[in-house]
Design brief:
Elements lengths: L3 H38 L4 H35 L3 H13 L6 E5 L4 E6 L2 E5 L5 E3 L1 H14 L6 H13 L6 E5 L4 E6 L2 E5 L6 E3 L9 E6 L4 E4 L5 E3 L1 E5 L1 E9 L8 E2 L7 E3 L11 E10 L2 E6 L3 E6 L2 E3 L9 E3 L9 E3 L9 E3 L9 E3 L9 E3 L9 E3 L9 E3 L9 E3 L9 E3 L9 E3 L5
Parallel strand pairs: 10-18
Antiparallel strand pairs: 1-2, 2-3, 3-4, 5-6, 6-7, 7-8, 9-12, 11-15, 13-14, 13-16, 16-17, 16-18, 19-20, 20-21, 21-22, 22-23, 23-24, 24-25, 25-26, 26-27, 27-28, 28-29
Helix pairs in contact: 2-3, 4-5
Length: 438
Amino acid sequence: MLSKGRKNMSMKENKGITLVALVVTIIVLLILAGITIAMLTGENGIIRKAFEAKEATEYAQIEEEVALAWTETQAETITQNLSSEETANYLEEVLKQNDPNTSVTYREENGTYEVNYKDYMFEIQPNGELTTNREDAIKDIEEAWEIADKTGTDEDIADQMEQELQGKDPDSSAEYNPDSGKIEVDHGGYEVEVDPDTGEITIKEPSLPDVATVVITKEPTNVSVYEGKTATFTVEARTVGEVTYQWYKGNTVSASSGEAIPGANGANYTTPAVTMADNGKYFYCVITASLNGEKVTEKSMAAQLTVQREVNIDTDEDGEPDINIDTDGDGQPDIDIDTDGDKEPDINIDTDDDGNPDINIDTDGDDKPDINIDTDEDGQPDINIDTDDDGNPDINIDTDDDGNPDINIDTDDDGNPDLNIDTDDDGNPDINIDTDDD
């Protein structure tokens, strides 16, 4: 049996051991907590990885939506022969079904379409490749370099940059090249080199497929011009490689029977002044792309040229047309005749374009129609004849438009009808004759 003093000493020793164990336990727990927090929130932590995975999934889904919309737009562009601007508008309308704030802009200087969709920026390259917006891609790369731990090796920096960039685009890559001493990065469709020490970025153009490509996006359209004028035909195409154009002129709609036009080697072709011999001719373009020894050729549809003859006759040689016929160009009058040389048409016929009078005749040169017939367009009188040029119709017939009198004749020019027949419209008298003018 222990003495009382010995017992107290034993209890103190036990308490000392328990306290040390508690301290050790607390330290271990703190260490574990620190490790857990680091695993959750650190640069490679679970929370960050989960966020990056979510962001990558969201990006991939949005990218797929844009790609599908572009596929639909390409089909519409080809079938409807849309211009580049019309293609941009169509793509914008398709994407607006999911995001009303979508905008699509065609950049003529580099042939790309800039797409702003669901707060992401994309560019559609001339070969149809979908890339992120260049500014966004470079910003992502700069941020990835900033985040990377510079105390590690250059390979470590490259690995950390790749992990960061793949959180935004799963197809991204970053690899250190010991020969150049640079980190080669492919992100958002852009290839760049990054100096691991300074973060300086050297940008390369988006990589293009090494296959020659020609896709006609807008076919030439029919053109109608007057004899003596020029006509312009245009073709639009998306191409990869060195491109050449050659226009042909033929007698049939078949895009294989024409003869090459010397010097017609651009996307646009303007004819010399045309003659009636050019009427009905067809024009088409052959586009060739060459790349890496391979050539691809596409022929456009043939567009027809119509040449119209404008008749303009000056019978009194005063420098002003006395007979001007345009059927139907349309530069307006279809038949316009000045019989007395006062520069005002005495016979003006337009059936029916419509610049109005369908038959308008001034028989006495006072510039007021004496016979005015409009059957029935309707600019009103259907037959209106003023035989004595007093400004009041002497024979007025409207059957039945109805601007009223159906037959109204004033034989003695007193302003009162002597024969008035309305059967039966009914503006009243059905036969009303005043032979003695009382």
